[in-house]
């Protein structure tokens, strides 16, 4: 039996996935979680073979859960599920340590097949997203520029971002100006939206 953890903040989706996987004779859903921190705790408690993790969850997102499990429970293969995949997401997921990346609109039996594949040591990335990733532009921003831009989402003042990043307010403004210039837009709000649309954040 392949022991599976399901983590998704939408209870209806989590229950539907559990029911679907419960029909498979070789899969056993041993734990469920509604947020990223609970997913990590459940994985450490139950030691699943495969964790199926939603990309967008509260407390810790799917990429953060993947990175934590890669460190704390390397024998557990992670499959990331998303309802809104962006071209950059599969690359970021694989870099974090995920073995699979699947969109929620995939055919019914696809998730079970992907779980078996990653449990066997393979990898899987949704073909449509993989093709988009190959055609998508690469991110021109540095990790620091991305970090500052991510924190600027709701028009957060430079002084607040500076405290969170332990940078000076002037340095924060410089990073935001550099990001805006590199992306060819006129404001940090536009820069954020463009970076988010490409999946760089």
Count of separate structural domains: 2
**CATH homologous superfamily label of the largest domain:** Response regulator
The top-level CATH class of the largest domain is: Alpha Beta
Largest sheet: number of strands, sense, barrel closure: 6 strands, parallel
Helix content: 40-55%
Mean pLDDT: 88
- Please list the strands of the largest sheet in the order they lie side by side: 2-1-3-4-5-6
Strand content: 5-15%
Radius of gyration: 18 Å
Which structural class is indicated by helix and strand composition?
A: alpha/beta
How many strand elements? 6
CATH topology of the largest domain: Rossmann fold
Shape: elongated
- Provide the CATH architecture of the largest domain: 3-Layer(aba) Sandwich
Distance between the termini: 37 Å
Q: What is the helix/strand order?
A: EHEHEHEHEHEHHHHH
Number of helices: 10
Low-confidence stretches: none
3D architecture notes:
By secondary structure, the protein is an alpha/beta fold. The protein has two domains: 2-133, 3-Layer(aba) Sandwich (Rossmann fold), CATH 3.40.50; 143-198, Winged helix-like DNA-binding domain superfamily/Winged helix DNA-binding domain (Arc Repressor Mutant, subunit A). Helix content is 52%, strand content 15%. The chain is built from ten helices and six strands. The chain has helices at residues 11-22, 36-46, 62-72, 89-96, 110-119, 127-135, 143-151, 158-165, 169-183, 188-198; strands at residues 2-7, 27-33, 50-54, 77-82, 100-103, 124-125. It has a six-stranded parallel beta sheet, with helices on both faces. Helix 5 (110-119) links the parallel strand 5 (100-103) and strand 6. Helix 8 (158-165) crosses helix 9. The two termini are 37 Å apart. The mean pLDDT is 88.
